[in-house]
Design a protein that fits this description.
Layout lengths: L1 E10 L3 H18 L4 E7 L3 H8 L5 H8 L3 E6 L12 H11 L4 E7 L12 H4 L3 E7 L9 E4 L2 E4 L5 H16 L4 E6 L5 H17 L4 E6 H10 L6 E4 L1 H12 L9 E5 L5 E5 L16 H14 L3 H16 L13 H14 L13
Parallel strand pairs: 1-2, 1-3, 3-12, 5-10, 8-9, 8-10
Antiparallel strand pairs: 4-5, 4-11, 6-7, 11-12
Helix pairs in contact: 1-10, 1-12, 2-4, 6-7, 8-9, 10-11, 11-12
The structure holds 3-isopropylmalic acid (IPM) and magnesium ion (MG).
The site of magnesium ion (MG) has 2 residues, from α9.
């Protein structure tokens, strides 16, 4: 029997709660699929929890375990108690992304029809919205030199041709399997890195992907268009910081950031799968957070980390079905706890509902 090694990094805040939910769902999937494979889970420290225990946000044995696994699931990192310390929890996540070479952060947005009324936007604007953000994850100002000299601070923003090319290719390949359109977002009217970005994306397009439609947008205008006409987008391709900001903006279109999943993948090693929502310290430990972002991230782990497509579809279908039957956590105006929402999804997984919709995001 095939055994997949999955490293779990619960981290901080609501991280442990949603990681437990994702793990339970994965265990049910392993049971349901005729015991053809099993998962071996291994839990390690990251973020603030790791700082408290070891002084380091990414301890060496955590990185070793991640490298040796088939996929990594992360809950969340960060919290107010670590804001003043010499080391920040977020450094652990950034170091992990860099060490595993996870240059492509993929954040699909889908709208559950029954949750359209939870969106802050009008139903006619958000209905049928279906796009995916391809955010470059290991470059830009996140990783440039950071300096503090006297009363002045700076963060260097650096991109090389190769770094832009590889994320652009991933986005074009994904677009081919979807509706065939890429919107590349930059600030080319001001930033030199953005001018390089635009040139390289256009070159990759002309050379290898002229069958895909490409448009360029400036990030300020894009943040407005994303609210005005979110249906216009298919694949949104952008650099690290713009992608961080736009993906949070995008995540609420569907009603709650608690629904949003993400996959970070790179040059062939294990991928990292995590909900978009972060550690949410204000609601941590109360069993009220929404586990859907984490559970869909577990589906992405199966599909893009382990190539278990049918199993990933089953999780997405179970989530759809639970939501269609009225399962709601408090962020969605309901009363279910995180545990009860997870149980409602597991119940549908046992029923074997089939998927209506599947996020298309293949890359080479
Ligand atoms: C995200 C988060 C991280 C980021 C933080 C926690 C460092 O906001 O994954 O979007 O900025 O990349
Ligand atoms: Mg973010």
């Amino acid at each position: 029997m095939k055994e997949y090694r999955i490293t779990l990094l619960p981290g901080d805040g609501v991280g442990p709660e949603v990681t437990r939910a994702a793990r339970e769902v994965l265990e049910v999937v392993a049971e349901r699929f005729h015991r053809q494979f099993k998962f071996k889970f291994d839990t390690h420290l990251i973020g603030g929890a790791a700082i408290d225990a070891t002084g380091e946000p990414l301890p060496g044995d955590t990185l070793t375990a991640c490298r040796a696994s088939d996929a990594v699931f992360l809950g969340a990192v960060g919290g107010p108690q670590w804001e003043r310390g010499p080391k920040r929890p977020e450094q652990g996540l950034l170091a992990l992304r860099k060490a595993l070479g996870l240059f492509a952060n993929v954040r699909p947005l889908r709208i559950y029809p029954e949750l359209v009324d939870r969106s802050p936007l009008k139903a006619e604007i958000v209905e049928d919205v279906d796009f995916v953000v391809f955010r470059e994850l290991t470059g830009g100002s996140y990783f440039g030199e950071k300096k503090r000299v006297g009363d002045t601070a700076s963060d260097e923003c650096v991109y090389s041709v190769g770094e832009v090319e590889r994320i652009a290719r991933a986005a074009f390949i994904a677009a081919r399997a979807r509706r065939g359109k890429v919107t590349s977002v930059d600030k080319a009217n001001v930033l030199e890195t953005s001018r390089l970005w635009r040139e390289v994306v256009s070159e990759v397009h002309a050379r290898d992907f002229s069958d895909v439609r490409l448009e360029h947008a400036l990030v300020d205008s894009m943040s407005m268009q994303l609210i005005r006409q979110p249906r216009a987008y298919d694949v949104i391709l952008t650099e690290n910081m713009f992608g961080d900001i736009l993906s949070d903006e995008a995540s609420v279109l569907g009603g709650s950031i608690g629904l949003a999943p993400s996959a970070s993948v790179g040059a062939g090693g294990p991928g990292l799968f995590e909900p978009v929502h972060g550690s949410a310290p204000d609601i941590a430990g109360r069993d009220i957070c929404n586990p859907v972002g984490a559970i869909i991230s577990a589906a992405l782990l199966l599909r893009y980390g382990l190539r278990l497509h049918e199993e990933a579809d089953a999780i997405e279908a179970a989530v759809e079905s639970a939501i269609a039957r009225g399962a709601r956590t408090s962020d969605l105006g309901g009363k279910l706890s995180c545990t009860a929402m997870t149980d409602a999804i597991i119940d549908r997984l046992h029923q074997g509902d089939s998927a209506h919709h599947r996020v298309q995001m293949h890359w080479g």
